[in-house]
Amino acid sequence: MSESLKVAPLKIAELGNPVLRAPAASIDHIHDPAIQKLIDDLIDTAIKTNGVGIAAPQVFQSLQLFIVASRPNLRYLHAPTMKPTPMINPQLVALSDEKVSGWEGCLSVPGICGQVARSREIEIRYTDRHGKSQQKVFTDFVARIIQHEFDHINGKVFLDRVESTFDLMSDAEYHTQIVCG
Q1: Is 0.90 surpassed by the pTM of this model?
Q2: Which sequence spans correspond to the domains of the chain?
Q3: Active-site hit among 3, 14, 98, 149
Q4: Which residues pair with 92 in a beta bridge?
Q5: Comparing C-alpha atoms, which of 175, 172, 11, 13 is closest to residue 106?
Q6: Model confidence over 103-149: pLDDT tens digits?
Q7: Side-chain half-sphere of 17: how many Cα atoms within 13 Å?
Q8: How far apart are CA 104 and CA 125, in angstroms?
Q9: Does residue 93 contact residue 70 with C-beta atoms inside 8 Å?
Q10: Is 98 a catalytic residue?
Q11: Which residues of 58-79 are buried (b: 16+ CB within 10 A; e: fewer)?
């Protein structure tokens, strides 16, 4: 068995924990072995928990770091597949005026999902795990993931963006109505 399969995913902070509501600190020393290990642990945790993204505050690390790891799973059957991408000290450069509503869930808000309007296209600047500056445009589902994770490093959760409680449902009902519908 490979070493990564033996390691349990990191513990996830759940709604109500203050770490989820605090703005995260920027990362100054990207090459620090503790930061590189955190990146690997976040990727591993996202994969093992079927998350399509995860932010450092969700694992009790109030740092401006998140992973985008889009791939099809039981909640998002049509998600595009992409290599897990760490984004350090990200800045949203541009958000399209065009908004698209879509269902979101969160590892830190278990059992609930909700309709959230997000910009269809975004441009983001971030530092990769090798210390190189990147600036890219993303659309649709991946843009949604990035905006969701960006919220986490700014002390927000998707529930803050739901317009009405009528736009919430349990994961079980979501799976019955939306996924299997």
Answers
A1: yes
A2: 3-179
A3: 149
A4: 124
A5: 13
A6: 999 999 999 999 999 999 999 999 999 999 999 999 999 999 999 99
A7: 17
A8: 23
A9: no
A10: no
A11: bbebbbbbbbbbbbeeebbeeb
